[in-house]
Amino acid sequence: MNVTFDLPEDISESLRSHWGNVSRRALEALAADGYRTGALTESQIKRLLGFESRLEVHALLKEHAVPYRYSEADAQEDLAAHRELGIVPRR
Description:
Blueprint: H1 9-19, H2 22-36, H3 42-49, H4 54-63, H5 72-85
């Protein structure tokens, strides 16, 4: 899906002078709000923004003051992955 919107030139210039790439900034804001409202997951944000790691997603959420959701299921999944990698001893 492509989303476009028109901005008055003066507003566009003002945003560009503060943010640089306005399109990227808008996409990041959309991703952060999507996570905040539960519409997007961490992995969807990672894919949408082309991030390499979860840490980049966490940094984006922090920049937009979005609380990070980390459930018990997430913790169990991470623990299983750490065991698989040998970081945590297997039971």
